[in-house]
Write a structure and sequence with these properties.
It contains 7 helices and 7 strands, in the order αααβαβαββαβββα. With about 210 residues, it is of the alpha/beta class. Belongs to the ANT/ATPSC lysine N-methyltransferase family.
Length: about 210
Amino acid sequence: GGAPPAVLEENESRCVPAASRGADGSKRSSWGFLFTGIVGGTLVAVYAVATPFLTPALRKICLPFVPATTKQIENVVKMLHCRTGSLVDIGSGDGRIVIAAAKAGFRAVGYELNPWLVWYSRYRAWREGVQDSAQFYISDLWKVTFSQYSNIIVFGVPQMMPQLEEKLALELKDDARVIACRFPFPRWTPDHVTGEGVDTVWAYDVSTVRGKRP
């Protein structure tokens, strides 16, 4: 009264033990959790790295990171010839201007809002052997007072230059020099200009800006 042998064999081939199904399900679940964890971790890492670069775009005045060219650095150093005193780079990016100034004998400081760039700048200064004379800080330039600096380097954008011009005119001493790269100040008359195109550098002596002579 049993089923024909052929039918029995077919039914047996389709039968999977419950334990095997559970093991396969656990493996799929584990791989699913692992995949979700990898994707989630990657997104968090990308967000952590990208946020400091993207956040400035949401500010009223955006100061993007554009590395200085070799010629720009040469022109800045040229404008510092025969100068002494402390130096600050406003929006120091990856630190190349500050490091070049430190190599030229200045005690140089860079202020940068992006923490990744600040950490990288510190690493570069250490690698170049000027970590004692090149310092970098995470800070918004509008919250820093620059009165203690004699040489100020600015890599700005047109939208910020009028406001920064007013801030520096109020804070700096008469013997200070401001060196602007890429874009000049709108109302100040430069004492010296060197370079051309995007590599142009303008130097302003604060004594001249105030109608005084050293």
